Amino acid sequence: MVDDGVQAEVTIWRKELKIKDFAKGRKLRIETVSPAFIKWTKDDWKTVNEVDTEDMCLGIHYTDLPTESMEEGQLKFTIYWKESEKWDGKNYEVNIV
Description:
By secondary structure, the chain is an all-beta fold. It has no helices and ten strands. The strands form two sheets. Strands 2, 4, 5, 8, 9 and 10 form a six-stranded mixed beta sheet that branches. The relative contact order is 0.27.
């Protein structure tokens, strides 16, 4: 393995790979298997943001949350599935550390 000192700028979260923590200064990429929109908050749902996923044409849809400049703390999100027109039914939490 070659270590050239380059680090990925993105941390990936999937339902099959639920990370709990990611490093401050990185983007959080949420990947899904079908079209969705992500409702997310950094302040315990006082402020809510919504963003659609994009199709990667590989059976994966994704969105990058703009977390690079966020301070340490907890980020919460939930998923709305467009095709079935249903909420996922749970909130997910990741920590910026």
